[in-house]
Design brief:
Helix content is about 65%, strand content about 0%. It has one domain. It is elongated and about 45 Å long. The protein is mainly α and about 90 residues long.
Length: about 90
């Protein structure tokens, strides 16, 4: 039995397996930025109902985290300040 409340519920994105899978596949790449932007942009002439607020918030958080991780890697590789890499 799982007694840890933090592990008892899936995140909002985990409840959308197709979104979760693609985010995981693109993690650490610049492509994830474009994918998240595509997910959050209405490209169906108003026919897209959009995501619940929790999913949108998680996607935006993951986009920023992904950018930061890439910047940290770049700063280490080029031996430049993180601010410059970001």
């Amino acid at each position: 039995m799982n007694d840890n409340p933090a592990n008892s519920e899936a995140s909002a994105i985990e409840k959308l397996p197709h979104v979760q899978k693609r985010v995981c596949m693109l993690w650490g790449t610049q492509e994830l930025d474009g994918h998240i932007n595509h997910l959050l942009t209405d490209s169906r002439d108003g026919q897209r109902s959009g995501f619940p607020l929790e999913v949108t918030a998680e996607l935006l958080f993951l986009a920023e985290l992904n950018k930061l991780i890439r910047a940290i890697d770049l700063a280490r590789k080029l031996q430049i300040p993180l601010r410059e890499a970001y």
